[in-house]
Design a protein that fits this description.
globular, 1 helix, 10 strands, 188 residues, Lipocalin
């Protein structure tokens, strides 16, 4: 019965009017004739739009060389920026799925990454003033490899069609150590 209720709720939600957090209807027209339209909201994705697309390249690191492909795309009506990565090294395949959101309360981006190895990281995102570097620092790690594990992922858009990334890990109070770095070219 509970499954049926949740399914029914899931089917009805797309039909419900879109409400913003303040309770107003998003995208609804004013009922008052002659009233000026509400100002458009700023493009929250402007600082990270350069990531959108498909990227392919190679990585080097503690796990050896790998071929990888990453795709960034807006999903769920533009509410989230999703990343999908697949990397193949030797005979190992690694996949991850990430969702970037904008936390209006904290006024910052938050990235959640789900890895094929079973762990989940929530990162706080900082963007450089020139908008070319994203620094992701773990806020939490679920099912981590070691207690107190921390991760730092740096993404640099070095040109309109070149992206470099680096992943560094640290346990407890230890300093970060580079784990893997990659260089990718925009495919499309």
């Amino acid at each position: 019965m509970r499954t049926l209720a949740l399914t029914a709720l899931g089917l009805c939600l797309p039909l419900a009017p879109a409400l913003s957090l303040d309770g107003s209807h998003r995208g609804a027209r004013s009922a008052q004739e002659g009233e000026a339209p509400a100002p458009s909201e700023p493009d929250v994705w402007a600082p990270v739009r350069g990531l959108i697309g498909t990227w392919e390249g190679t990585s080097e690191g503690k796990f050896g060389p790998a071929e990888l492909e990453t795709t960034w795309e807006l999903v769920l009506g533009g509410a989230f920026l999703q990343s999908r990565t697949r990397s193949v090294s030797r005979n190992e395949v690694h996949e991850d799925l990430g969702m970037l959101s904008y936390d209006r309360e904290r006024e910052r981006f938050v990235f959640r990454a789900f890895y094929s190895e079973g762990y989940v990281n929530r990162y706080l995102v900082s963007i450089s003033e020139d908008g070319r570097t994203l620094q992701l620092e773990t806020e939490s790690v679920e099912n981590g490899l070691a207690p107190g594990l921390r991760a730092r992922n740096t993404i640099v858009l070095t040109g309109s069609d070149v992206l470099t990334t680096s992943l560094s890990l640290a346990a407890g109070g230890d300093p970060y150590e580079l784990c893997v770095s990659s260089r990718l070219m925009r495919k499309r």
